[in-house]
Write a structure and sequence with these properties.
2 strands, mainly alpha, 98 residues
């Protein structure tokens, strides 16, 4: 590893970028676990709540199931947006320093 690479890797800018990436990743992971396992725990612990009717043919469980998947897509879309607009730009700027 040459001097310039070591300088970039030890810079506060690089460390801050790595820290932000892990924070965003862990927050999104926690939200995803909350949604998925929250749904599973509702199924396991309070089936009656999922059986509550909404309209004539639908119940809460039929709404929450697809909602879990839609939320996971939304979290993924947010990460892709964040990575493309923030993270990748910062990585490119750090690469130029090399």
């Amino acid at each position: 590893m040459d001097k310039k690479q070591k300088e970039v890797l030890e810079s506060e800018r690089f460390k801050s970028l790595v820290r932000r990436k892990w924070i965003v990743s862990y927050v999104l992971l926690a939200l995803l676990f909350l949604v998925y396992y929250g749904y599973i725990f509702i199924i396991a612990g309070n089936k009656a709540a999922l059986a509550v009717k909404i309209g004539e043919y639908t119940n809460v469980g039929l709404i929450l199931g697809p909602l879990v998947i839609i939320i996971s897509w939304g979290l993924t879309a947010f990460y892709v947006w964040w990575a493309n607009n923030t993270y990748d730009k910062e990585v490119e700027e750090l690469k130029k320093m090399l």
